[in-house]
Amino acid sequence: MNPRDAAGYAFLALAWGLSFALMLRVEAAFGLVGAVAFRALVAAAALLAASAMLGRMPRLRRGWGRFAVVGATTVAGQLLGLSYGAPRIGTAMTAILVATIPLFSMAIGWAWGIERPSRATAAGLALGVGGIVLLVGFPAVEPGEGFALGCAAALAGSACAAFGSCYASRALRDADPRDISTGAFLAGGAMTLPLLVLVPVPAMPDAGDVAALVVLGGVMSALTYVVYFGLVASIGATRAISVEFAVPVVAAAFGWAFLGERLAMAQVAGALAIAAGCALALGLLAPGSKQAADRG
After folding, report:
1. Spatial contact of 174 and 168, defined as CB atoms under 8 Å apart
2. What secondary structure letter does DSSP report for 77?
3. φ, ψ (nearest 5 deg) of residue 56
4. CA spacing 20 to 30 A to 88: which of 94, 151, 186, 286?
5. What are the structural domain ranges in the chain?
6. Which residue from 218, 153, 178 is spatially nearest to 52, judged by alpha carbons?
């Protein structure tokens, strides 16, 4: 992995890890559907504005159908699942379940013949799963009536994200990451917006809620998706999406530093295992594989 890809990987782990702190506030203010639809449309607007300033508008017409598939999965499906699950199982548990995305991605990638992960990559993903088990410890909330539904929704959202990632890797490999991101957010926002009839915004959001939405959509969605799809094209879907192993570590560290949450030694060991698993999946610890990763 070259320095640019490594920087993008670290940025994604940080931004997505911190995004869970804003997700609950935005959903409480805008409702389940509003939080997803408005977040997606804010992200699309930010990308369109950036493209206008750069003098290069996205090319969406020729690939609109493919962008719509990515929008339905990585935007609408993923964000609806995570936004539904987070209030019911807690942000830490949601972040941990997000780390299952690489497992779904690997299964889909193998089934489609997109990638043939090495033994080191498979071992890294297995190590990451073991780290997740250690990191969970106990659920962030007491299991209740909605706990199982929350877990199922978060896992379904993770599966949607993995499908969209693999699809983009196969069908949009030559597309500009800005085009993919803009098209996906426009499609995802357009698909979810009509559902406001069924799940309306509960009350008038205040200025702080709007600011949280802008940060969540403009920075933690728009910018991160451009970086992410750039990584997919550069290092492959499975290795790019392995960043989700690092997301729970960032979320847990934020909770410990700013929310007063404690980490048990088993959870610290889990965080270290996840980091090691990411390194293996990326080919950084496998002998002779670093050059291959850099060439990706």
Report:
1. no
2. I
3. -140, 95
4. 186
5. 3-295
6. 178
